[in-house]
Write a structure and sequence with these properties.
By secondary structure, this protein is an alpha+beta fold. It has helices at residues 6-15, 35-44, 94-108, 168-172, 178-199, 202-211, and strands spanning 26-32, 52-58, 76-82, 113-116, 120-123, 126-135, 142-148, 218-223, 226-235, 241-245, 250-253, 257-260. Bound molecules: biotin (BTN).
Amino acid sequence: MDDKTGDDQIKGMIDSLGTARIGKVIYFYEEVKSTNAKAMELALAGEEDGTVILAERQTGGRGRLDRTWSSPEGGLYLSIILRPGIPPEGLVSLPLAMGVGVCTALRKWGLDAWLKWPNDVLVNEKKISGILMESKSSSDVVIVGIGINLNTELDDLEPELRERCVSAWSELGKKCDYYKALADLLTELDRVYEDYLEQGFKGLRGQWLSLASTIHRRVRVEMASGEVTGTAEDIDKEGGLLLRDGRGKTHRVTIGDCIHLAQ
Ligand code: BTN
């Protein structure tokens, strides 16, 4: 039985990580409201590019489109402080790039993981992970927050989520080593972030497409301005979804909720 504390395990993991940027410094909390909020606070106080904020649980986890992210113990909740030197409006594709890293890590754990546009990760068509990128116009920092249902007991999620979500535990039938999973994840995120800094989304777009289950499917995309139903045909070089409706008109969507429809 391993009697190291969580802090010792994190220190050991950082020492053997070998990443270029992500995870050189990790703040580890038992409980926070939101790791994204904590990360922004630390970033504005000067924390460096690549610093990770990790929590065992969140009391006010935030999701995309003003939703909440149910964050009971067992899940992996982390936010990364990034200073890519690119204005936030040029970073629409960054969360998609990070999705490539998350999906690849999940596959390493033995999961049949697929991306749903823009950056949800699904296993058996149910959500296992989501990504929320946040920025402040007054600053050069972006926060990429990632939630993964790792060793999550599905009954601990909000009742309305239980039918639509899975965890690595529920799918693999055994718990994952939290620190090994974290190391795999940070290694993959570092790989994609370095690639992104070098050549933007150019190289990662092909990887995203090969991991995505959204393309060539019938989908409904709900946006603030309304909804479009059609066939998801491609993503462009900024990560926008190209959707052909029943009349043959192509729509480009950058923000919205994508629902995979029955084929
Ligand atoms: C989504 O809606 O799919 C995005 C969910 C992002 C959740 C993560 S958990 C860690 C980080 N802290 C937050 O408050 N949200 C993100």
